[in-house]
Amino acid sequence: MNALEVKELHTYYGKSHILDGVGLHVAQGELVTLLGRNGAGKSTTLRSIVGLTPARSGSVTVFGKDTTHWPPYRIAGLGVGFVPEGRRIFANLTVDENLKVPVERPGPWNIGRIYQLFPRLAERKGNKGRQLSGGEQEMLAIARTLLLNPSLLLLDEPSQGLAPLIVQEVFRVITATRDEGTSVLLIEQNVRAAVEVADRAYVLDDGSIVYEGLASEFARDEERVRALAGASAEKWSEEEVGDASVQAAPGMG
Hints:
Layout: E1 2-13, E2 16-27, E3 31-35, H1 42-49, E4 57-62, E5 65-66, H2 72-76, E6 80-83, H3 95-99, H4 111-117, H5 119-123, H6 134-146, E7 152-156, H7 164-179, E8 183-187, H8 191-197, E9 200-205, E10 208-214, H9 215-220, H10 222-229, H11 238-248
Parallel strand pairs: 3-8, 3-9, 6-7, 7-8
Antiparallel strand pairs: 1-2, 1-4, 4-5, 9-10
Helix pairs in contact: 6-7, 7-11
């Protein structure tokens, strides 16, 4: 049984046809990335899956249950965690207080383990959300969702606006989550980083899936990667991460 199965999704904003027959699946314990240029429909796909922007037609199945017309809270109750674009942490609460907002569910993740996974958050546990860098806020947003011990984790652009060194740290955490057995669907603009950690990749273009296959195979198609990644097509290498970390050190975000 797949953790997530999406078939022939058609989603509209008013009269604008945003998703045109989108189909994808995530197996249990698999990390899948959905790639595409800005405006391709990636975020709308996630919003349709979690019920925030319901599809007009098509189907969404989560752990064998048809959730197409369910409200978001019922979908979350199946063990679906959603980290939206923009982080949306509580700016006036401390890191520790932010982590105590979710009602913990049984599973491997608790606040103690979160601080082991995110040493940077442990160092700043008394800082308010607004005092954190962009990278720390993203870590906190992911950490807060992990405390729900989701069986399926959906992430929308977790690397957006982050320095390369912090991107590497965020993706390390995403991989660790998958290694714990959580199924992951990752929406990402950083093509290089995404295909390094993902098992499979989909590419969305103008509301339709135009590629499906192993992430490693997609990564080897240099022309396709560069066409999709545009200005972000630089090698995501240790050397460049090191160089960028020196430049980004003061802000760390």
